[in-house]
């Protein structure tokens, strides 16, 4: 008896044998996906007790910038004294798992730990679920060197301006006085001077920071351009970093309860 194998079936069998086979462009993980990057890197970072000078890199909008991300990683690795890196959202352009994996693979070459916050583009398609699988919760915080970094979702438009993004009650709870914390820094993607930020929440958002003793700065990305602004009379700086594609990032230094910024080209 002769056995005939349909060519299409052969092709399918070949695909199934490939470790990188993707069942759908909307999938949120595969067997090679990174998992819980933020938690793993924060464990590696530790709490920085005894570190009286906190130095970290702020970048964002890595979408469509794979080559630039490789160069960014090399630049940061050549800089001494960096404690960690923050990617302030828009890791992807279309919320696709493969994009997230490409960028994460490049960032995994950093010598120091890195964490990421969710951007508006990361919330498209199945990006939200992919981000949670790969990085973790959309709102989280961590402590390093006596500074609490409050990382949160400010992508109001993608949540249809539902009045809950950003989650101001959560922010206030995270910024309550606690032992071992002398200062606070907020980190999110969309800045409050953007049309993509829920205008009904701007006053409550900035007031939450202004009312927090020891709050140093609110850091963002999204616009692809550097901007330093003061939305109220609190004196708290709000800073937006340029994009990865523009080959620029921010070096932030916290010492003696004060924060300073330096623009770095690469």
Automatic annotation (TrEMBL):
Domain Calcineurin-like phosphoesterase, residue spans: 55-226
Keyword Signal set for record: yes
Keyword terms, alphabetized: Signal
Record's signal peptide: 1-22
Domain of life: Bacteria
SUPFAM superfamilies: Metallo-dependent phosphatases (SSF56300)
InterPro entries: Calcineurin-like_PHP (IPR004843), Metallo-depent_PP-like (IPR029052), STPP_CPPED1 (IPR051918)
Gene3D superfamilies hit by this protein: 3.60.21.10
Entry GO MF terms: hydrolase activity
Keyword Nucleotidyltransferase: no
UniProt-listed PANTHER family: METALLOPHOSPHOESTERASE, CALCINEURIN SUPERFAMILY (PTHR43143), SERINE_THREONINE-PROTEIN PHOSPHATASE CPPED1 (PTHR43143:SF1)
Protein name according to UniProt: Metallophosphoesterase
Naturally occurring in which organism (per UniProt): Pedobacter steynii
Lineage, broadest ranks: Bacteria, Pseudomonadati, Bacteroidota, Sphingobacteriia, Sphingobacteriales
